[in-house]
Amino acid sequence: MESNKPKNGRRDFLKGAAVTAAAVTVAASVSTTASADETMNTTGLGYQKTKHVKTYYETARF
Q1: Where are the domains of the chain?
Q2: Tens digits of per-residue pLDDT, 1-21?
Q3: Checking phi first, is residue 14 left (phi over 0); if not, alpha (psi -120 to 50) or beta?
Q4: Which of 3, 21, 34, 55 is the most exposed place for a label (fewest CB within 10 A)?
């Protein structure tokens, strides 16, 4: 007797895992890019010494 069930094997699992990993990578990079654009200075004021810049200067001893 022949079985009409599809055979889900190791290869199908690995294909699915690869597609899922690629989708997660794309989703993570898109969300990271979107958050970086939100914090970008669009007022045209140029360089500003913010708290984190001052902290960097103190730790780098500039």
Answers
A1: 9-40
A2: 566 666 778 888 889 999 999
A3: alpha
A4: 3
